[in-house]
Structures are given as C-alpha cells and as structure tokens.
Amino acid sequence: MDHLQSMRVFVKVADLGSFAKAASMMDMSNAVVTRHVADLESRLGTRLLNRTTRSLSLTESGQVYLERARQILDELEDVEQMVVARNHEPVGTLRIVAPVVFGLHNLAPVLHSYAQRFPQVVPNVTLVDREVDMVEEGFDVGVVIARNVRSASVVMRRLTTGCITVCATPEYIAKHGAPQRPEDLLEHHCLSLPADYWGDERVFTGPDGQEVRVRPTNVMIANNTEMLRQLALLGNGIALLPSYLIGRDMAEGRLMRLLPQYHLPRVDINIAYPSRHYLPAKVRTFIDHLVEHFSQTPNSMLGEQWSGIDGAHTKAADGSMGSADAAVHPAPAPRHPEQERDEGELDQLDEQLRANGIERKGARRAPAAPRRYPGNAERRTYEPA
After folding, report:
1. Which residue of 200, 215, 293, 330 is surrounded by the most CB atoms within 10 Å?
2. Same-domain status, 44 and 82
3. Cα separations (Å) of 233 from 133, 158, 222, 245, 362?
4. Is residue 365 part of a domain?
5. Is residue 231 located within the same domain as residue 172?
C-alpha cells in the first residue's frame, strides 16, 4: 500500500481517536482504514495503537511516530501549497465559522468585498454559539471571541478588541434613575448572559484604577446578546452589551451609556486557522482581507458601521462625554416611521431626564432668555443641545 497514504490515515485516526471517524472524514471504508494502519504496523514491526472495543490509545512507539509523521505530512503539504500558490489564484470553497451575533453584524461587508476581489472563491459560512473543533469539523477560518484561547493545532491572530458597554433606554433611566457606581447595579433590573459564559461577577475598573466587583441583580438571562439588546430596547433593564452591537442604538439615542467612568475588561476578537507554514491561497487572502478590514474600522463602527461608542463623542447618561479614540460623526440616517415619536412626548421625556440630571443626546433645548448688561447691551446665550 501507499506508504504516505498509510501515514496520513494513521495520523487522522490518532487525531480523531476513532477508525470510524477517520474513515468518514477521508471518504474510505472502515476496512480500508484498518488495513492501512495494520500495513504500517507490519512494516515498522511494532504496534502503534492499543485497541479495545471501547477505546483507542497510542503506544509509546505510536506517540513518537505520530509526532514525526505529522511534521513530515505538514512539510509536504506546505511545499505543495507553496508551489501551487505561486501559480494559481485563490479558488474553491472557503469554510468559515463565527459566533452568531458577531457574524450577523460584521461579516456581510467583509464577504461582499472579498467576493468582488476573488470571485473564484465560494465562502461557506457557519454561524454557531458553541465551541468548535476547527480541525475535526473541517473549517478553514474561524472568528473566535475570547479573552484567552490556546490550541496547539490552531493559530490565533488578533483582529481587534471588543469593549462592553453598560446601557439602558432613556425611559428606563427616567423611571429608575442612572447608577453612579457599579454597586448601584444591585438596585437595578439587569439583563445578562448565563453565568457559564463570563461568570456571575462583573469586574469594573474605576477612574482611580481600582477594581470593583459586583454581582448584578438579574431579572432576565439569555445566551444571545441580540436577545439582550432587544430586551434592553423594550425597557426591561440595564444590559452589558458589545460595542459592535449597539453603535447605531447609541448614536440615535435609543440606548444611553451608563457608568462611563468605569470600564469592563476588553475581549479579544481573533481570527483562527489550522496551523500551516504555507496556507492555501484562499485562506491566506481571506485572512489578509479580514485583517485589513478590521484595521480600518474603529471599534465604535463595528457591526452597524456606525459611530456611537468608544470612537465617537457620545454623551453618557450622567452628562459626561464618552472616550474619543476617533472623532467620527456621520450624518444621521433617516428614521423608519415606526421609530418616530411624537415631539411633545419626547420633550416631556427630556424634561424628566433633566430632572434626574441627565441629558439625552439629540434633546431639543429652547434658547435661554436674553441677559441684560450695562449700557443696555443685549447678549443672547444658547446652551448646547
């Protein structure tokens, strides 16, 4: 039998821990896979795998052979890919995996521009909210959102960092007030991810650099940030949401930032791909395209491509300004008819907010009465909206 093919089959069986899975992945019968491994063991004169009816494990010789075989096969594939990449345009199906909400809000513009540059590549996108084994499931590229991710078989490259914003609707703030310290969240209705996502404790860093740890009082829990966003927009409580999800809501005043002087840990947004020295052209070009896209997109404009949080000057619920990493001020988009509110109702809401020391972004203010100065000179002062 083909020595290299037997080596490939053995590595696949060892990686997946199953003859049946290896056979399915390599489009072979179980008998052919078994014969390849048996032929390899016969040629080497030693057993590489311990087999029982319920488990499969490497012998000491099998472990040594696996490490060297994997290196040899990787180097062979790298050489072949290097030669092919020098003479061929990216072609074929590109399997991409990403978290559901991030993918819905961020990937379409990237895929659109990539497809225009490389029309021979067919992106095949899978959006899931679970842990993915990229090697076993056959994905070429993945977007991973996590603080710390390590894997020997996968390369991680940071695209950007996501910031988490504490926010609520103006109506909720007018009714319940705005928290001034993280501890105040204990007195509010909070909307959160399940504890197995980020734990049940939130760690804020205050203006003095000191950590403040709180366990908010959750009234609703959901395993999807888009669901939490919708619940927040309906006025159900205070939510901690990623910047790429609520930029437009912040810019148009539907959500207001709370606790602007306190910051939650940022989360790395990474691109992941199976470890290879020479990547297939379709993978290499997509990674480069993704990195270029995110390097030109401020954190505040992720998702809706809209200013609203970290990058733009947005007023928080306490009247202070948000951070200004990049001053981006696009013209407001026209509102959908369902979003229009009666002006009198809005003015009434704004008065309630001002009574609580809060200024809603976009609120109208009447000119101040003229001030009289000596010599009958008259000056008119307008307060900024």
Report:
1. 293
2. yes
3. 35, 31, 15, 12, 17
4. no
5. yes
